Amino acid sequence: MTKPTILTGIRANSDLTIGNYFGAMLPMIDMAKSRSDECQVNLFIPDLHSFTTPIDHTKLYEQIIHNARVFAAAGLPLDNDNIHIYRQSYITAHSELTWILDCFTGFGEMGRMTQFKDKSSSVGDDRTSVGLFNYPVLMAADILLYNASYVPVGDDQTQHLEFTRDIAERMNARFGELFTVPESVPKQHEFFGKDQGLRIKDLANPNKKMSKSDDSGKGVIFLGDTPGEAVKKIMSATTDDKAEIHFDPANQPGISNLLQILALLRGQQLEETTGEFEGESRYGDFKKVVADEVERFLTDFQAQLTATDDAVILKKLGTSEQAMNEIANETLLRVQRAVGLRPKAE
Ligand code: AQP
């Protein structure tokens, strides 16, 4: 019996943040390690998704390789044959299947996607591309090409997973069993077990999430920040005038965010960290504790990053991409035959 496939990725549009690291990368690596005996794990670098919003293209290729290094530095076992790490654009079937699925996707269906509405309003009409409008279809192709059943999704991606299930069912109803339909959102939550909703907030504006594409970067800690830069960002983080530390995201979002960050950096349960500082009044002292921990984390992480070996990483990418091309091309051929682009199978 073939093993179920788990699939997940992080865009390479900019340096990663501690939000991406603790909210996505570390959980992905833990999941890959714990599930790789029973599942095939596909971790991919969605390089085609990286420019649905404007980026500096002179930096894209280096950023892609850099993200692969970050996975290695964060502990991804590159010698595990059940874990694949690959660059999306190296498997051309992603683009080809996207076009075919596009022609079975409604304009209105895409226009209802809240991510499109949010992101297009933030970049403005002139810079809103058809790629941004269309990216859920590319995401559906990313999943369906590999018959993936499990895709960890945060709130912002649930609509896209639902669309993937819809288009797979639509194509299957019309052309016969072409695709494995990924599990529903509740089943994904059941499978991945833990809370997928963790969100580190922007330090300057703790009412919004920390994002790698943030224009000012003032409230964002990037993995490539010098420890000194990161310390300054923590020390100038927005808090409140209550002068009492409580974990209360609704009323004290800044302080609560710092407690959350500290717990993640220390690898502690949030309750343990909040218990230690509950009721204290000296925000400056508390920030210094968080800043020291951030400094230590970045110093260690950057040393691990420097120690990664590009030859080993490129070899792993190459091996995974070869294996992924085989699986993806098989699915694509099935679809091409079904829609009449290739002769029917003998
Ligand atoms: N602040 C965050 N806290 C926890 N997790 C986060 N993630 C993003 N921000 C936080 C998780 O990181 C992964 C990144 O996926 P993505 O690059 O495909 O896109 P995203 O969700 O749009 O992430 P960003 O950092 O906000 O990127 P930009 O600014 O480029 O759009 C996801 O698993 C996400 O949940």
Write up this protein.
This protein has 346 residues and is mainly alpha-helical. It is 53% helix and 5% strand. Strand 2, helix 2 (60-73) and strand 3 form a beta-alpha-beta unit. Helix 3 packs across helix 6 (130-144) and helix 10 (253-266) packs across helix 11 (270-277). The longest helix is centred in the C-terminal third of the chain and has 30 residues, at 310-339. The relative contact order is 0.13. The mean pLDDT is 95. The structure holds adenosine-5'-tetraphosphate. Adenosine-5'-tetraphosphate binds at residues 10-11, 13, 17, 19-20, 23-24, 154, 198-200, 209-213.
Short description, anyone?
The chain is mostly helical and 346 residues long.
Described by the principal axes of the CA atoms, the overall outline is: globular
Strand order of the largest sheet: 3-2-1-4
Q: What is the name of the CATH architecture of the largest domain?
A: 3-Layer(aba) Sandwich
Rg over CA atoms: 21 Å
Work out the helicity level. Answer: 40-55%
Order of helices and strands: EHEHEHHHHEHHHHHHH
CATH class of the largest domain: Alpha Beta
Distance from N terminus to C terminus (CA atoms, Å) equals 25 Å
| Main β sheet profile | 4 strands, parallel
**Count of folded domains:** 2
Q: What would you give as the CATH superfamily of the largest domain?
A: HUPs
Bound molecules: adenosine-5'-tetraphosphate
Structural class, by secondary structure, is mainly alpha
How many runs of DSSP E, i.e. beta strands?
Answer: 4
